[in-house]
Design a protein that fits this description.
The complex is a heterodimer of chains A (433) and B (124).
Chain A: H1 2-60, H2 69-79, E1 82-91, E2 94-101, H3 107-115, E3 122-124, E4 135-142, E5 145-155, H4 162-208, E6 219-226, E7 234-241, E8 244-252, H5 256-276, H6 280-294, E9 301-308, E10 313-319, E11 324-328, E12 331-335, E13 353-356, E14 362-366, H7 368-371, H8 382-391, H9 398-413, E15 422-429
Antiparallel strand pairs in A: 1-2, 1-5, 3-4, 4-5, 6-15, 7-8, 8-9, 9-10, 10-13, 11-12, 11-14, 14-15
Helix pairs in contact in A: 1-2, 1-4, 4-5, 5-6
Chain B: E1 4-8, H1 12-24, E2 28-32, H2 35-44, E3 49-53, H3 61-70, E4 79-83, H4 88-96, E5 101-104, H5 109-120
Parallel strand pairs in B: 1-2, 1-3, 3-4, 4-5
The chains are: A alpha+beta (433), B alpha/beta (124).
Chain lengths: 433, 124
């Protein structure tokens, strides 16, 4: 009886043990599955972190966005198993595109119609009735600029996830930053190139001014020009012609390259006409007609033309230019413009006037960059100040007068930027024969 | 026959991630928590590949690599080193000391499998 009972008990214990063992096996299996699920998830996260690091590293070392698109596609595909990728960008007005299909079916062509209509973030899922099974597209945008978009077509094994979208947006963010950096860099290079070309233009223009002014025992002549930007529309020249020294100072309306080009044209014309004109008025009439042909309607030239004769006679035409300063004894007087600026109306009859200089008399011809120079408070240097400087310069040379005016201008303007070209020409009459 | 890979890293999580991904691809995975334990395991059973972290307590990865390459029993075992981000110098040093490949943390598990297959010639 006892032994029978004992056998029954043992059987029951064994059965119980088997049940416990089975439960433990099931639990172990469940825990293993759970652990694997977690490890799967952890692997995904680790893969995403690795991809983000790799994207950072790729974009940190690239300047031109077009150079990175293939690598971007490969890196993204480590995390998101898509079948095709389309990147469309417009940078500096140029279209940059990249397409790659990883399967036999041409899913890009299938999705092409759809791609043209996309806006914002688009997540197409299988039940949308589209030709492609699914699609994820994000814009490439930074600040207010839209550079384009990245589109992934058809995810293997399922639909695109929120994690896929975040990853793609991170890539798009980096790509946008690269586009922006590239644009800024390119513009800076372009600015630098223009600066260099303007510097060359400035040197060419400065070379067109007389390198050495003609020396004369009767006249001392000095001149200076400071363009406001690298090139400008001021011009002066001193040309010995038959019987006199032709002196000219001109200001072409406007600034920069257009004014500088017109300045070169004015110089060539004047130099040709000066050789062939016996009278100043004839020269002025011819010059005005040429300028009327060359200048557009909104441009004109104010100009002073002077013929210096050794006996002190000065024939001059002031065509719309600033008043000329004449210093005689201790007095400074003004010779106002008496003719129209040139380049406005054809066939004007320019008349010359004549004055007589005495030894030590001085003429100062200048452009409005001198009198209209402003200080930091916006105040103009003005004609009065200029006259005062000239008045205090009776005993000094032509060169020194220019230096004195320049110093006074510098002191007056301080750190204020120069807005206009500034030209001065001083003629000092030394003696008669 | 599956290849045996010894994963040596002091980070439990990283060992599990690497082990999990290798196991999924059919590799047999063994683990060691530091350099000393790694050399003990290699002495008892030679693996087909060692994935070796550099920064470890007790015995670092460079020292393990050096000892492996001077030990006739272990010198032929291929080694892939794991270096920290920005540790390009470490990778260079490891390659000069006989490592067969390197991965920079955080590395792509996809790339890890590719690298393991390249170095061992084992599919899994």
């Amino acid at each position: 009886m006892l032994s029978e009972n004992g056998a029954t008990d043992r059987k029951e214990v064994m059965k119980l043990l088997e049940q416990v063992l089975e439960q433990m096996k099931t639990l172990r299996h469940e825990y293993t599955n759970l652990l694997n699920e977690h490890l799967e998830e952890l692997t995904k996260t680790y893969q995403e972190v690795a991809t983000l690091f790799e994207l950072n590293s790729i974009f940190a070392n690239v300047v031109d966005p077009s150079e990175v698109l293939e690598t971007l596609s490969d890196v993204l595909r480590q995390t998101i198993p898509f079948k095709a990728i389309v990147v469309e960008l417009t940078v500096l007005g140029k279209k940059i595109g990249y397409e790659k299909s990883f399967d036999q079916i041409d899913s890009i062509s299938v999705a092409k119609d759809l791609l043209d209509t996309l806006e914002g973030v688009v997540l197409v899922e299988p039940d949308h009735g589209m030709k492609v099974k699914n699609l994820l597209s994000v814009p490439v945008r930074s600040g207010g600029t839209s550079w384009g978009r990245i589109t992934l077509i058809e995810r293997d094994n399922g639909i695109f996830t929120a994690a896929d979208r975040k990853m793609l947006e991170a890539a798009a963010f980096q790509l946008a930053a690269t586009c922006e950096r590239y644009t800024r860099l390119w513009r800076e290079i372009e600015r630098q190139r223009i600066r260099e070309q303007l510097e060359i233009a400035r040197r060419i223009q400065m070379n067109l001014l007389p390198k050495r002014l003609p020396s004369s025992e009767h006249f001392e002549i000095a001149a200076s020009m400071t363009p406001a930007v690298q090139v400008g529309g001021d011009y002066y020249d001193v040309i010995p012609v038959r019987g006199c020294i032709l002196v000219t100072v001109a200001d072409i309306s406007g600034k920069g390259i257009p004014a500088a080009l017109l300045m070169t044209s004015l110089r060539s014309t004047l130099r040709v006409l000066a050789k062939n004109s016996s009278e100043l008025s004839h020269l002025a009439n011819e010059l005005n007609n040429v300028l009327c042909d060359d200048l557009s309607e909104d441009r004109f030239v104010t100009i002073v033309l002077m013929c210096l004769h050794r006996d002190g006679r000065v024939c001059m035409i002031n065509a719309g230019h600033n008043p000329i300063l004449l210093m005689h004894s201790d007095e400074v007087s003004l010779i106002e413009a008496h003719e129209l600026p040139m380049g406005i109306m054809r066939d004007v009859d320019y008349r010359e006037i004549e004055i007589g200089l005495h030894p030590n008399d001085t003429l100062l011809i200048y452009t409005d960059g001198v009198t209209e120079a402003r200080n930091e408070t916006g105040e103009e240097f003005g004609l009065e100040r200029l006259m005062t400087v000239v008045k205090s310069s009776r005993e000094v040379s032509a060169d020194e007068i220019i230096t004195k005016v320049q110093n006074e201008l510098k002191r007056f303007c301080g750190e204020a930027p120069q807005h206009d070209d500034s030209t001065m020409l001083v003629v000092k009459y030394l003696r008669r024969d | 026959m599956s290849c045996r890979v010894l994963v040596v890293d002091d980070s439990d999580v990283l060992r599990k991630i690497v082990g999990f991904n290798l196991s999924k691809e059919g590799f047999i995975v063994e683990e060691a928590r530091d350099g000393v334990e790694a050399l003990e395991r290699m002495a008892s059973a030679k693996p087909d590949l060692v994935i070796l972290d550099i920064m470890m307590p007790r015995l670092n990865g460079f020292e393990v690599l050096k000892r492996m390459r001077t030990d006739p029993e272990l010198s032929s075992i291929p080694v892939i080193v794991l270096t920290a981000k920005g540790g390009e110098d470490d990778a260079k040093t490891a390659l000069q000391n006989g490592a067969n490949g390197f991965l920079t943390k955080p590395f792509s598990p996809v790339k890890l499998i590719e690298e393991v297959r390249r170095v061992t010639g084992c599919a899994g």
